[in-house]
């Protein structure tokens, strides 16, 4: 749906940082340091537009985003050798399909490839971006292991022309000379200090916001599809109830954000094949608090409340605050019911999708018990088939993109692992 973005240039980077911090803050901090080094090189080069510099630096901040999915976080130092393709390829296809960085995303796929092994068909601008990110990445990891920058320069001189293009190394040396980048590398970095003139359009901000929703897949594929369907069911129900466009706008974003905190829940709990123990359920319920911390006061209050109240019940038996009916708006009630319907209709590792009749029976029973809003349940009962048709039609494009991403990842992984094996075998035979 067409709607005004709810984030802006001043707060979107903080939202991204807080979201990914719940997976592992080490990669967020590493990404910011890499972005600061890349920004220094671009500032010296003075070749690209302000928009291109901005995009390349955001790309540098997110260059290891694929490692969140491929569980390579604890092997960062090994990325230089055999463990380069999984996170690089996943990061590329994720950013290419689900972010505003499509024009530069290919650089992420090659950010661990030595200059002499980069494909001849690679565009010059992608080669440069890949090399800048690669150099900044290696410098940061090297300094985490060997704090003496004098030895760093000796290492870089030894790999000039093989690992890194000489022109890229010269940019790095000049940037460090002008800006003392290495001396400032360990300072706490806010992205607006790295890139003070960042200016994102309204559409770009919305695209980055959606990117974070899809990043929940780093924990659970089912959570992504559930979020998408919950959002669409909520908006369809709201329209059939005659709510205003402003209310539907708030419902759309509140539902879109409602499970963002699940990115911080262990996958063994999210994907547990059965009923959770009391201890595991207590951890699962913290996703609402995590969502609140991620949003950090950056999202309009009405939208935030919708996102945070989807597990509240009219009789006060819900969580996290145990609110009662008079404290819950119609927007919050709609998303709460839609969340249940989406969960019942969805498939999981431990259950098949529930039928229409069983789904309606469950929510009607909860309405009779005074837990969820009867008027919302009645609208869904009367319009169930129409709502599901609308949901399927509106969800199909993004779900097709999402599943296509996974297929592309498997294809590229097979291709580059095979090509890499052939290169290694050729090297052994020639030696």
UniProtKB/TrEMBL annotation:
CDD domains: HDc. Transmembrane segments: none annotated. Pfam families: HD_5 (PF13487). Residues 201-396 form the HD-GYP domain. SUPFAM superfamilies: HD-domain/PDEase-like. InterPro entries: HD/PDEase_dom (IPR003607), HD_GYP_dom (IPR037522). This is HD-GYP domain-containing protein. It comes from Blautia parvula.
């Amino acid at each position: 749906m067409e709607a005004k973005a709810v984030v802006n240039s001043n707060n979107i980077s903080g939202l991204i940082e807080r979201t990914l911090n719940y997976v592992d803050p080490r990669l967020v901090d590493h990404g910011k340091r890499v972005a600061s080094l890349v920004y220094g090189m671009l500032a010296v080069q003075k070749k690209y537009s302000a928009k291109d510099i901005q995009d390349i630096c955001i790309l540098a901040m997110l260059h290891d985003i694929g490692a969140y999915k491929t569980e390579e976080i604890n092997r960062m130092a090994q990325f230089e050798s055999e463990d380069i393709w999984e996170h690089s390829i996943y990061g590329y296809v994720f950013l290419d399909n689900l972010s505003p960085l499509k024009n530069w995303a290919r650089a992420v796929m090659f950010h661990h490839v030595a200059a002499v092994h980069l494909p001849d068909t690679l565009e010059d601008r992608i080669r440069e971006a890949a090399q800048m990110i690669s150099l900044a990445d290696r410098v940061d990891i090297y300094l985490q292991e060997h704090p003496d920058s004098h030895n760093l320069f000796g290492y870089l001189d030894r790999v000039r022309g093989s690992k890194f293009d000489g022109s890229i190394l010269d940019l790095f040396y000049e940037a460090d000379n002008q800006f003392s980048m290495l001396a400032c590398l360990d300072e706490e970095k806010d992205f607006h200090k790295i890139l003070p003139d960042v200016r994102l359009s309204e559409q770009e901000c919305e695209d980055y916001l959606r990117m974070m929703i899809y990043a929940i897949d780093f924990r659970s594929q089912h959570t992504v599809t559930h979020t998408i369907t919950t959002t669409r069911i909520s908006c369809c129900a709201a329209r059939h109830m005659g709510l205003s466009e402003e209310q539907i706008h708030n419902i759309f974003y509140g539902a879109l954000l409602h499970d963002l905190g699940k990115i911080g829940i262990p996958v063994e709990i999210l994907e547990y094949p059965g009923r959770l123990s009391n201890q595991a359920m207590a951890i699962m319920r913290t996703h609402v608090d995590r969502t609140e911390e991620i949003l950090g006061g950056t999202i309009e209050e009405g939208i935030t409340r919708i996102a945070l109240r989807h597990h509240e019940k009219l009789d006060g038996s819900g969580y996290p605050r145990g609110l009662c009916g008079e404290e819950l708006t119609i927007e919050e009630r709609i998303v709460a019911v839609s969340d249940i319907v989406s969960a019942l209709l969805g498939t999981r590792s431990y259950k098949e999708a529930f039928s229409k009749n069983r789904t309606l029976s469950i929510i009607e029973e909860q309405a009779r018990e005074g837990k969820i809003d009867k008027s919302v349940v009645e609208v869904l009962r009367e319009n169930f088939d129409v709502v599901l048709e609308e949901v399927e039609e509106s969800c199909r494009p993004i779900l097709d993109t999402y599943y296509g991403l996974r297929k592309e990842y498997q294809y590229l992984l097979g291709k580059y692992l095979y090509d890499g094996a052939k290169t290694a075998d050729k090297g052994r035979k020639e030696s």
